[in-house]
Amino acid sequence: MRRRPALLSALTAAALVAVALAGCAPQGRGPGNQPAGCTPDLPSGDASSVVKVSGASDAAPKASFPTPIVAKTSEVTVVKAGHGITAQKGSTVVVDITVFDGRTGKSIGSTGYDGSSVVQALAGKGLPSQQGGVQRSSIADALVCAQAGSRIVLTSSNKRINAGLQGSTYGVAVIDVRSVYLPKADGVNQLPKDGMPNVITAVGGQPGVVVQELGKPTTARSEVVKAGGGAVVTKKSTPVILFRAWNWSGDKPTVVTALDTWSTGVASPVSLGAQGGLPPKLSSALVGQKVGSQVLVVLPPKDGFGAAGSNYGLTDKDTLIFVVDIVGVQK
Using an 8 Å Cβ cutoff, are 44 and 32 in contact? Predict the structure, then answer.
């Protein structure tokens, strides 16, 4: 029996933010206009509540507030409620952000509001710095309990907003939440197929595989490890996935670091079909699955990346194992 234990330094356009949050299943609204039943990471307070925001959410907003604004602690106020999935631990959240100087009230920068690029940050670990370290950011913390369509006001110190607020101690960020995706596959465990690797999942969702004494397959094989209940992935869909690949070159498969989104925890949208860059057998294994599913795919050398595998440190003789969590479908 298979064991599956439960185990902006720079602001550009639409941002994918992997957020370390507390899970919740809210109904209605709670204090501070937050989803009821979900406890935000940052409190609502006097500084964030006095910020008045105007303008459509699909363009950089205007904000007015008494200057200089003082935000000795990071605070959030939800000025527009969202809907749908509530961001929880590990969720990938797509946002647009405009930052204002707390001393002058002037806008000092914003994302493109056109989805043209991606910024990645990890809450709890902060934003990667150019020196190779990590700077903690309250922008990611502000997304605790976020829902698609939310508009959130964050007041915080220059250091924690991390947006180049030169000459100002405090700043204001207006965050428009575009999409919220699952932090990991949350579907129902399925019975395993004979002859397939064991999938063992850590509490945070990171998968591992055990091949035991299995022989390598000569044809592509796939199975659903967890069956989700969300939207169905079609051939024309752009699923948002977390995945990890292993090179099954010996008795113990080794992780292919270039094919491992779990190293950052940030989910990626992928195109299916010939233009998507995925091996065809991997793409076809995702079609028909539902959001929340985890899919195991084993590809023999003839069904892998071929010559393109050299981009990932692979050869055309390598057998590959993929575990894919489908956490959303890009709209």
Answer: yes
